[in-house]
Each structure stands twice: as C-alpha cells, then as structure tokens.
C-alpha cells in the first residue's frame, strides 16, 4: 500500500538540469518576443532624436505638432507651435518626425 523509500526516491528523481529547461525556454521566448524588439525601438528613437535639425516637423509625446526652429544643446530643442509661439522641448519627448528637411546643397 505504501511506497518504499527507495521507490519514491527513484520516481521523483531526474536531473537538476532537466528541471531548469522550461525556465530557460521561457526566458528565451520572452527575450525574442519582448526585450529585443523594445531595445531595437529604443535605439531607433535615439537615432531619430539625434538627427533632429532646424525645419523638421515633429510631434511631441503630448501630441503637440510643431516645427523645430532651433537646436539648443544636447538635451533641448526649440519648437514653433504657432506663428511667433516657441516652446523649449526636451529631445527625449519628441515622439515622431513627420517631415524631415533636406540639408542645403553646397555649391
């Protein structure tokens, strides 16, 4: 009726590595489905923000659409949201560049 200690030990055995395989697979799936795409998106956003220049039409994270009138320093740009209305915006809050201006051709 009762299992002997030797039989119970043999039934619940198995390698310790085999018990970690599901955890390793779950982490690998999470990495490829969640972490890696997010890192790629963050890298693209950094490149977009670093390439901002005067004349670009941008959308802030708050939904304000404006034209970059001046790139002040590494962390700040000045955006004109209406005629004569300029606001200072932190570069990281630029969500999207709508129209990119082309650099002037040197003659």
From TrEMBL:
Q: Where in the cell is it found?
A: Cell membrane
Q: Name one GO biological process term.
A: protein transport
Q: Does the keyword Protein biosynthesis apply?
A: no
Instruction: Specify one Pfam family.
Output: YajC
Which sequence ranges are marked TM in the entry? 6-34
GO CC annotation terms, alphabetical: plasma membrane
Q: Could you list this entry's UniProt keywords, alphabetically sorted.
A: Cell membrane, Membrane, Protein transport, Translocation, Transmembrane, Transmembrane helix, Transport
Superkingdom per UniProt? Bacteria
How does the protein associate with the membrane?
Single-pass membrane protein
Subunit (UniProt): Part of the SecDF-YidC-YajC translocase complex. The SecDF-YidC-YajC translocase forms a supercomplex with SecYEG, called the holo-translocon (HTL).
Entry's PANTHER family? SEC TRANSLOCON ACCESSORY COMPLEX SUBUNIT YAJC (PTHR33909)
Question: Of which family is this protein a member?
Answer: Belongs to the YajC family.
What the protein does comes down to: The SecYEG-SecDF-YajC-YidC holo-translocon (HTL) protein secretase/insertase is a supercomplex required for protein secretion, insertion of proteins into membranes, and assembly of membrane protein complexes. While the SecYEG complex is essential for assembly of a number of proteins and complexes, the SecDF-YajC-YidC subcomplex facilitates these functions.
What name is this protein filed under? Sec translocon accessory complex subunit YajC
Supply the source organism for this entry.
Answer: Meinhardsimonia xiamenensis
